[in-house]
Structures are given as structure tokens and as C-alpha cells.
Amino acid sequence: MIYNPEFKYEDILTPEQIELIARLSGCMEHQKANCTDMCYHTKYRTVDGTCNNLQHPYWGASHTGFRRILSPIYENGFSQPV
């Protein structure tokens, strides 16, 4: 798998699947990041990590998943480290 910075889960999952994952995981729905206060966001970093990268406001934000650059490799194909 090749890393694609423009990848969005919405490209491969239906809205119903995304809602199911959010409900089962207990994660609250994201509120839109408000990065409009440029005086603040260019000078200070936020506690939750949103808007620390103004081109990609959710990169590094808390409670967001990381995308793998390479596919995982496990001894048993699932959970046993190599």
C-alpha cells in the first residue's frame, strides 16, 4: 500500500459504517476545527492539536487515528509481532 496524504475514510466507508464505528468505539463525532483566528493560531499551539498545521488542521490532533505508511507485518498475520 502506498501512502496517500489525501486518503479519507469516507472514500472507502459508507456514512452508516463510519457512524457504526464511532458508536461502537465510544468516540464522539468531530466538531469542525475553527482555524480562522490567524493571530492566535500562528502564535500559539492548541492543547488538543487542532489547527497546529493550518493546511491540515487535524494532523496530530488528539483522538484522531494515524495512517500507516506501510502495511503492518505480523507473524500470525494478525497480532503476533515479527
From TrEMBL:
Listed Pfam families:
An_peroxidase
Listed SUPFAM superfamilies: Heme-dependent peroxidases (SSF48113)
Which GO MF terms does the UniProt record name? Answer: heme binding; peroxidase activity
- Any signal peptide, and if so, which residues? none
What Gene Ontology cellular component terms go with this record? Answer: extracellular space
Example GO BP? response to oxidative stress
Keywords per UniProt: Oxidoreductase, Peroxidase
This protein's name: Uncharacterized protein
The record lists the organism as Nesidiocoris tenuis
